[in-house]
Amino acid sequence: MAGEPQADCLFCKIVTGDVPATIVRETDTTVAFRDINPQAPTHVLVIPRAHYPDAAALAAAAPELAADVLREAGEVAVDEKLEAHGYRVVFNTGSGAGQTVFHAHAHVLGGRGLQWPPG
Ligand code: AMP
Ligand code: ZN
Hints:
single chain, HIT family, subunit A, 5-stranded antiparallel beta sheet, globular, binds adenosine monophosphate, binds zinc ion
């Protein structure tokens, strides 16, 4: 069923604490933690506690939860002092775009100059 935990999902295991992570923020509906392979000085992932395979599925099934993820991405940027110089919020969607974990997540990237367009 949509939103149910998936036994084989790495980020569901981070939500339950079965896989450790450096958590920087938590709400009733979301968890934010540092990316294990950071691509910028600040690289935090924001995930819904509930499992949806990607951002589009999340937004379609649970738009308020999608909004929670976006709001938390903004709060991470405030906490990490990224606002002054700008930052990027990215949802890689599909393996062709680099998605490797199929539990919706926002990348919050900042702390260095960010090129546009991205690779
Ligand atoms: P994506 O490639 O968009 O699906 O993003 C998945 C992200 O999860 C990558 O940036 C990985 O570096 C990150 N990642 C994978 N395993 C872990 C982990 N155990 N803890 C934190 N981040 C992870
Ligand atoms: Zn999951």
